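Hi V.,

Quick status before I head out on leave. The structure for the redesign project is tokenized and pasted below; the design run finished overnight.
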């Protein structure tokens, strides 16, 4: 654990390490190119480095922090999910979704989550620890390598896997910068989206960041009374604090906010509640994503039937709120947040990773 993890080093830190080894500073740029642009899985691949340096890097630094434990394809073949073990045995998940000409990755920022949303599989397992920036970036590089073999690339990244990204603000933002950096992974910030339960101080901080990363808010209810039970952090940051923070965010960034709303049968899916939601969002530069709740074993609630989903959407659209209904993509591989981890440990997941 004392070995420096290469993906956690900024270019400055990498240069410092190489300098203490008596290596020229330009090697740092070469190594970064191998890591983030050629997606090297092993320092042995870094063929323009002297062999002695490759050996020393292999001995004294770490590169592979993620060990795939389970990998699953959805039956339609469009969604691929991997459960990874970290060096300390904690487990996280990442999902690749393919649609249109896009390859969207959904990545984790924490092992577990402290937000305790009762419907969410990760919320049910509790908080283990924050991921480092390198552990966040490693999920992207793992899939980038797989896509390289098909001549494809990662086109979009959503921070919507396990954990609450804004509760691990510093490491999440370091990962964003590394992924955005032209000398790093070089993905445009507008192709990244951070999803949050609504941590108000962090949203205010995010509105001052120079990177134009998208913001999604897991709203799930139009009133404090209901949201307190579905998203418990609402007790600390109620709608009366959250909505002004989002208005200020939009005024500062001119970027559209996405609201996630998981429809739960006869809990938050009535047309009257759609009307309340429309009132809450009126005049806001926003978009609503509706998704019927993906059932989790310990959730007290279940997903809404299709006709209520469409009725809810129609009510929002009639009020002029742009709304999309999300398909239950990857439902057969438990692609909801935290679900693969649980299924694996309950022993009802057949496909173990070989390798
Ligand atoms: N903590 C962050 C990001 C992780 S969850 C957040 O809450 O936004 C990513 C999204 O998946 C959130 O909108 C979350 O509410 C939603 N989600 C979690 N479990 C779900 C389930 N079983 N069905 C549908 N959506 C779910």
């Amino acid at each position: 654990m004392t070995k420096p993890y290469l993906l956690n080093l900024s270019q400055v830190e990498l240069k410092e390490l190489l300098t203490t080894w008596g290596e020229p500073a330009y090697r740092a740029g070469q190594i970064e190119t191998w890591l983030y642009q050629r997606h090297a899985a092993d320092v042995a691949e870094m063929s323009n480095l002297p062999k002695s340096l490759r050996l020393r890097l292999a001995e004294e630094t770490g590169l592979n922090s993620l060990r795939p434990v389970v990998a699953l394809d959805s039956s339609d073949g469009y969604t691929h999910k991997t459960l990874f073990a970290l060096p300390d045995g904690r487990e996280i998940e990442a999902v690749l979704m393919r649609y249109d000409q896009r390859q969207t990755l959904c990545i984790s920022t924490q092992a577990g989550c402290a937000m305790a949303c009762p419907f969410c599989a990760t919320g049910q397992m509790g908080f283990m620890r924050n991921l480092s920036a390198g552990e966040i970036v490693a999920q992207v590089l793992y899939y980038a390598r797989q896509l390289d073999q098909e001549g494809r690339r990662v086109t979009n990244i959503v921070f919507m896997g396990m954990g609450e990204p804004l509760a691990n603000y510093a490491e999440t933002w370091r990962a964003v910068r590394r992924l955005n950096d032209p000398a790093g992974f070089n993905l445009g910030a507008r192709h990244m989206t951070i999803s949050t339960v609504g941590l108000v101080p962090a949203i205010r901080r995010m509105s001052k960041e120079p990177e134009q990363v998208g913001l999604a808010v897991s709203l799930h209810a139009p009133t404090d009374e209901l949201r307190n039970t579905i998203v418990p952090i609402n007790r600390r940051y109620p709608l009366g604090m959250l909505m002004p923070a989002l208005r200020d965010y939009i005024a500062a960034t001119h970027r559209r906010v996405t609201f996630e709303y998981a429809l739960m049968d006869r809990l938050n899916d009535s047309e009257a509640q759609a009307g309340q939601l429309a009132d809450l969002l009126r005049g806001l530069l926003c978009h609503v994503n509706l998704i019927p709740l993906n059932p989790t074993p310990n959730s007290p609630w279940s997903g809404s039937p299709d006709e209520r989903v469409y009725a809810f959407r129609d009510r929002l659209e009639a009020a002029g709120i742009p709304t999309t209904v999300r398909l239950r993509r990857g439902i057969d591989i438990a692609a909801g947040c935290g679900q693969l981890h649980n299924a694996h440990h309950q022993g009802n997941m057949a496909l173990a990773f070989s390798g």
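Above is the designed sequence. The radius of gyration is 21 Å.

G. will cover questions while I'm gone.

Best,
W.
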